[in-house]
Amino acid sequence: xxxxxxxxxxxxxxxxxxxxxxxxxxxxxxxxxxxxxxxxxxxxxxxxxxxxxxxxxxxxxxxxxxxxxxxxxxxxxxxxxxxxxxxxxxxxxxxxxxxxxxxxxxxxxxxxxxxxxxxxxxxxxxxxxxxxxxxxxxxxxxxxxxxxxxxxxxxxxxxxxxxxxxxxxxxxxxxxxxxxxxxxxxxxxxxxxxxxxxxxxxxxxxxxxxxxxxxxxxxxxxxxxxxxxxxxxxxxxxxxxxxxxxxxxxxxxxxxxxxxxxxxxxxxxxxxxxxxxxxxxxxxxxxxxxxxxxxxxxxxxxxxxxxxxxxxxxxxxxxxxxxxxxxxxxxxxxxxxxxxxxxxxxxxxxxxxxxxxxxxxxxxxxxxxxxxxxxxxxxxxxxxxxxxxxxxxxxxxxxxxxxxxxxxxxxxxxxxxxxxxxxxxxxxxxxxxxxxxxxxxxxxxxxxxxxxxxxxxxxxxxxxxxxxxxxxxxxxxxxxxxxxxxxxxxxxxxxxxxxxxxxxxxxxx
Length: 509
What we know:
Strand content: 15-25%
Mean pLDDT: 95
Number of helices: 15
């Protein structure tokens, strides 16, 4: 087993890079013999050291890609971070479709044990959902779901639980327009999600987000797997809770008849997330997850890459793999939308990375994005979809979402993701019911500290114990196990009921 203190003090990721990455805290004067330089100041673990002298204004490269520009002269061995590197716009060659690979014949079919719904869709979990149309019905939804904790589910062994899906909006907004259309698309995506065997949809009665309007707009209809209640029409909170419990009990009896069966892993759709990233994210967990997604795509499955502000500056690596110019241009259009959106609101794309990202060694959004896009592996880009839009293509798909993880993952689940893989360097804790969420630690120190929350230690790559490909295969196998019913750490901790966070557009009135 490799140990971090036996590994080299720095990593060079590409021979053309201007920076070296510290594998541990480096003291001033530490000699880096392989590079024929010494650290001229302290370099924190995960941070960057100048591999040679860099003049003010020069581009600085990591992964053989531009991550920023020197804001002053930088000497070899100096710490490179916020104090001496900045970013500004520069030309990128989108080279549409230049790196598209031939589609390989799928290997021998692998299977997982999933649920088949009456319409043929496939699930990795068997939940009943209690969904609120508006914040005003959130407490009622939660009390209905709370009636089915623990022993109350004993008579329904094939059901994973009853999940309240609540939120803070649904009123104080226009009843027509982009904002409510987006909210309806998200809620409808959850109602349709195959991991819900049935859904009770609960409203207040006078909200902007009327149940009848949502059902009409999203072409949904009541059935034995979709029931609705409004508090005002039912006679108040208590009567709604009592009636809701009756309805859920009826749904549980139906859902309990569903049993897992062997199914092709082409039915697995993984939402890719990274949160609390550090300087190792783009070296360990993200490329390992990318290797796992290459395996999934080879077997006919689907990977959803998202967080548009966090691929900014790396989008040219995706457009080169687009299966058509039209797909590549859809991605560039979303990048331009975000540039205008942030400018209109007085922000900038480099508002991201977060303080935690910066403490972990990431300096600019360009650097963060180049590491984040590694989660997508090397597969062709099959499609680009809008937030919470149903994903129909197989292979690698990009969904336009904000970078904020709960909002981004909510869109992915609404689009059909039935598993989430979440890489983290600082130690994000996150669940995403009705879809299970796997946590991938970028470094062994954090993994050991937060082992109750982390599923896989990708820090073994940095320690020298495993390669990116070996850890990618481990992730791939674990995805199949989790899709078949094994519980993730976030599920064991009870996460996933409070993380539903639709993207809110427009004013709150």
